[in-house]
Amino acid sequence: MPATLKLSEYLFARLKQLGIDSIHGVPGDYNLNLLDFVEPAGLHWVGNANELNAGYAADGYARIKGIGALITTFGVGELSAINAIAGAYAERAAVVHIVGTPPRESQDSRLLIHHTFNDGEYRRFAQMHQHVTVAQANLRDPRTAPAQIDSVLQQCLLHSRPVYIEVPVDLVAAPVSAEQLKTKISIPNVEPNAYQESVISKVIDKIYEAKQPIILVDGETRALGIVDDVEKFVSHTKWPTWSSGFGKGLIDETLPNFHGIYRGNFDDPKTQRFFNDSDLVLCFGPHFSTTNSFASSSIPKTQTAILFTDTEIRINTQVFRDIPARYAVSRLSLKLDSSRIASYTTYPDLPRDQSDNFTSVSSDGPIKQDRLWRILSTILRPGDIVLGETGTAGYGCREMPLPRHTRLFTPVTWLSIGYMLGAAQGAALAQRELISSSNYHGITNARTILFIGDGSFQMTVQELGTIIHNNLDVVLFLINNDGYTIERCIHGLKAGYNDVAAWRYLQAPSFFGASEDTYTASVRTWGDLEKVLGSGELDRTKGLKMVEIFMDREDVPKGPLSYLLQLQTAGQ
Amino acid sequence: MPATLKLSEYLFARLKQLGIDSIHGVPGDYNLNLLDFVEPAGLHWVGNANELNAGYAADGYARIKGIGALITTFGVGELSAINAIAGAYAERAAVVHIVGTPPRESQDSRLLIHHTFNDGEYRRFAQMHQHVTVAQANLRDPRTAPAQIDSVLQQCLLHSRPVYIEVPVDLVAAPVSAEQLKTKISIPNVEPNAYQESVISKVIDKIYEAKQPIILVDGETRALGIVDDVEKFVSHTKWPTWSSGFGKGLIDETLPNFHGIYRGNFDDPKTQRFFNDSDLVLCFGPHFSTTNSFASSSIPKTQTAILFTDTEIRINTQVFRDIPARYAVSRLSLKLDSSRIASYTTYPDLPRDQSDNFTSVSSDGPIKQDRLWRILSTILRPGDIVLGETGTAGYGCREMPLPRHTRLFTPVTWLSIGYMLGAAQGAALAQRELISSSNYHGITNARTILFIGDGSFQMTVQELGTIIHNNLDVVLFLINNDGYTIERCIHGLKAGYNDVAAWRYLQAPSFFGASEDTYTASVRTWGDLEKVLGSGELDRTKGLKMVEIFMDREDVPKGPLSYLLQLQTAGQ
After folding, report:
1. Alpha carbon of B197: minimum distance to chain A alpha carbons (Å)
2. How many Cβ atoms sit within 10 Å of the Cβ of residue A536?
3. Rounded CA gap, B113 and A564, in Å?
4. Contact present, A8 and A142 (Cβ < 8 Å)
5. CA nearest to B243, candidates B253, B256, B255
6. A-to-B residue pairs, Cβ atoms closer than 8 angstroms
7. What residues of A are in contact with residue B498 (Cβ under 8 Å)?
8. What is the pLDDT of residues B370-394, one digit of tens each?
9. Which of A36, A82, A114 to mutate to test the interface with B (most CBs of B within 10 A)?
10. What's the pTM?
11. Which residues of B touch A411 (CB under 8 A)?
């Protein structure tokens, strides 16, 4: 390694070390010099159609590979992306937002350049980003830049949340010391002490006492880096286990003791009873937003819960700080005596998500939400990534039993519609990279399958062009139910403002540049759908396929949406 | 008028009073109840495909009608729009950004609802908006809400810049006093005093002394509300007059003493000499960003300049505060003795922008930037609105001589690519409303003509669906030059990151739902273009027409872009 290298080389070498192989973003005149260094660093430049979508894509990429990055330009670019950065913050995706900024001379002389407010004030956009990122670095001095970069990247890993790095044009090629590159960036270790051990012992005592223990895997489990440990724990204890919507897809759903999403008040009465009768709920990576907890009804009772969070263990009402989940779970695995934990001699009779098939539906009948998702689940293969956009798709996907190593994106808390199309682009790219580096559970081909409603699709539609341009393996199911059905359930069932412009959706692949023989299909009946699924077209892995499913605008999956819809209908 | 009305009725009645007839935006679950009141208030709900585009559209609408509005939802919606709000701030468009927020109960109890960061903190988004708006109101109390609304709307008018209003769901229908509605909102008057009169006298003295006075109309002239007065002044004095790019289209370009944009170092030597030799430059609405002033070279010399700004008059190096342009210009008109001002007995020989025609080009030759814009100017009719997106189009449009009452949007300072497509939607709607209320200079039909490059078009393409859905009269010229040509001029002439995905652009109208007989044309040669322009298709006012013009990716209009391109080519 040379003793010095250019600042941008340093930055990109660091990203590469952390497992990033592609960078999302859009060129702009304050980042062009920076982009010169992307491909030479061995990184693929994606080139998104706009910055919001680039942010969504970097987030989707990060959720599959652990970390992602995007590059935007000062002002206009970075502000266009800021909603995506906020979403990554809310749902813990480790996204590095790099902004190419004007030369320091322009900044310091308060020159009235473009992408400013013509008032000489250059710091507004960074200030805005402080609200949506866990760390920020404004690189101003080549001597300190490497340490600044390292520090924010460590924060990014530590919190699995976005960070913000400003690179002035005139520093892109500044020489910096290569010395620090020799030390890998990693999450700082816990210094073991007696206090932590005493808390772990408390947890273990609770576990030994429990007669009817259960496990709830919530979605921050991924961000906390404990997915494998938790899966082992679930597998090992054989205790009945549920996930939240956010947690679904993280651990092996084919384990016999996995029972899908715990739906709180909306769940099967038998499940609710068992969950509520449990005397111990071990909950990993809790994320108790109302939307991720069925209006708080799936949150374990405090008096029986032990929560493992980013920095704390909560045992019932007590909070023990500075015991990160990663450390706690590893200590737990080590210290737990399996012979002393509860085992279910007769495993309880608890429902599991089931696939469905076409025998139970009439072939000329319209497609209905009540069975669609369980039928669609039959097409899933190990390694597929499934995305269900906010709306009926997001709820529907929660009913799907998933093969091993299938990852699921469902609406959690941020719920920015249009997100899933950008995220699908990023996730599909991450998936391809993992496969090509033989780092994908031995799976050699897999698809990214996106279910998205018409209203959401319109938000970010141009990213289909990026999916095509990058030749990604995406199957897109467009649910055409004539507008914002999820909003109709909330308010304005028949209101004109919940309509959207009527597009000819299946023309999308052609318009966005796909080869003319790209597979598309239009589906109105169960018979149509059976034909499409039976055609084998969706199994051919390569490139884009698109299926438009027409559904009634007042049809929704059973659960929170149907509950809301009933209230709306009653109010008519 | 009833003594009380609902808060949302109050808000919308105020917008209506200010001349707003349509509201842009996207539904979301914290604004649905608010949307119930839009149409009953006599306002048209546009229903955009996404919030960034809605913001651009509201900005375009505001620049034509004086003020515009959009409604978004808490968090996700408002942040998606924030780059558009920033642009409206930078270039002074009066945009009212109304955000539907969660019920006060959720906010006050820090409930972990969706569209938050799952941390109980609800104020981040409003804090971010403080950086990009001139006034903010968080409506929390029905007793004070009317005064809060009035106060921010007055600020919006006063500064011609965006404001931000939060309406919690549970206050939408709260009864408020109607009393204040009787008093119209207006910009506060100046209290005349001797100080102002003495400054006006100084200005008048300078005018009387001047031997070679000239006028520069910059773009804040619109925001300052002095367009008519300035036009009268130009017409009356007959002094040689130029505009900036920002100012072009504001005053009658057919006046014999109007000479187009003053291009500083890039202008005809004769023009530069005359401009620089002038002993007095009256400059209205100055906006001296580097991009609006040809890298500062078109800024009048301080020692000969008098600037009329939002709150000041600057006479040479002296700054006289608290004399708003509107007041100053009206006093000037009143007090100036025309018999004592310079008149050009022999009007100087100064170039003007000229149209061009097909006689000078070869019919099978490729379309070139050097003549395209002057040829395209022949299709313009009084009342048309012309938009030239950042890129070659934005520079090209500056060469076009404009008929009376033609308004032009060119890149000024914010330069957020994709803006012009959204702005075209808003401007076309504003234009239609002005025509239908017989408030458009007696013009009964006119078009909105958008010139946009492929890269910019991709950014915001879904708004074509909104243009179609709202049946707006838009002629769209897509400049297909294979990527970001403007970026190629700046850096990375041949770099892959300046490419964009290759779309089949002319399929856009069909994809986005236009009737199948929508006029589209593809143009590669001058002969092709002549045929299209001669067909009369673009003159039929109704609906969308789209023409794709293929051009070389390294061809740019003469001026700053060709200068930059030369540097790039030399650097190869």
Report:
1. 29
2. 8
3. 16
4. no
5. B253
6. 245
7. 27, 32
8. 999 999 999 999 999 999 999 999 9
9. A114
10. 0.98
11. 114
At B162, list the tokens. Answer: 């965006």
Tokens of B541: 């006012």
Closest CA to B127 of B139, B138, B114: B138
Cα–Cα distances in Å, from B249 out to B63, B96, B240, B405, B446? 12, 25, 16, 8, 15
Cβ atoms < 10 Å from Cβ of B183? 8
Count CB atoms within 10 A of the CB of residue B236: 12
Q: What are phi and psi of B353, to 5 degrees?
A: -65, 140
A75–B414: do the CB atoms touch at under 8 Å?
Answer: yes
In whole angstroms, what is the distance from residue B371 CA to residue B359 CA? 11
The full set of domains in chain A, from first to last, is 4-182 (3.40.50.970), 194-340 (3.40.50.1220), 358-571 (3.40.50.970)
Using only the alpha carbons of chain B, give its radius of gyration.
Answer: 24
Q: Is A249 left (phi over 0), alpha (psi -120 to 50) or beta?
A: left
Contact between B474 and B447 under an 8 Å Cβ cutoff? The reply is yes
Interior angle at CA B231, CA B230 and CA B237, nearest 5:
85
Q: Name the amino acid, one letter, at B77.
A: G
What is the ipTM for the molecules in this complex? Answer: 0.97
Determine which of A31, A38, A115, A220 to mutate to test the interface with B (most B C-beta atoms within 10 Å): A115
**Residue whose tokens read 């920095």:** A311
Q: Which helix (H) or strand (E) holds B376?
A: helix B369-376
**H or E segment to which residue A89 belongs:** helix A76-91
Q: Residue B441: how many CB atoms within 10 A of its CB?
A: 12
- Give the list of residues 6+ apart from residue A568 with CB closer than 8 angstroms, or none: A488, A489, A490, A491, A493
Q: Give the contacts of A55 (CB within 8 A, at least 6 positions apart).
A: A24, A70, A81, A82, A83, A84, A85, A87, A88, A95, A97, A422
Q: What is d(CA B118, CA A299) in angstroms, rounded to the nearest whole number?
A: 14
The proportion of chain B whose per-residue pLDDT surpasses 90, expressed as a percent, equals 96
Whether A170 contacts chain B with CB within 8 A: no
Instruction: For residue B105, give every residue at least 6 positions away whose Cβ sits within 8 Å of its Cβ, in sequence order, or none.
Output: B111, B170
Q: How many CA atoms lie within 13 A of A71 on its CB side?
A: 30
Beta strands in A495-566 (DSSP E): 519-523, 544-550
- B 401-430 residues inside an 8 A Cβ radius of A: 411, 413-418
Tokens at A51, concatenated: 């910055």
Which of A83, A287, A289 comes nearest B80 by C-beta? A83
Per-residue exposure over B459-480, b if at least 16 CB sit within 10 Å of its own CB, e if not: bbbbbbbbbbbbebbbbbbbbb
A103 touches chain B (CB under 8 A): no
Digitized pLDDT (tens) for each residue of chain A, 572 residues in all: 689 999 999 999 999 999 999 999 999 999 999 999 999 999 999 999 999 999 999 999 999 999 999 999 999 999 999 999 999 999 999 999 999 999 999 999 999 999 999 999 999 999 999 999 999 999 999 999 999 999 999 999 999 999 999 999 999 999 999 999 999 999 999 999 999 999 999 999 999 999 999 999 999 999 999 999 999 999 999 999 999 999 999 999 999 999 999 999 999 999 999 999 999 999 999 999 999 999 999 999 999 999 999 999 999 999 999 999 999 999 999 999 999 999 999 999 999 999 999 998 999 999 999 999 999 999 999 999 999 999 999 999 999 999 999 999 999 999 999 999 999 999 999 999 999 999 999 999 999 999 999 999 999 999 999 999 999 999 999 999 989 898 899 999 999 999 998 999 999 999 999 999 999 999 999 999 999 999 999 988 689 999 999 999 999 999 999 999 999 888 75
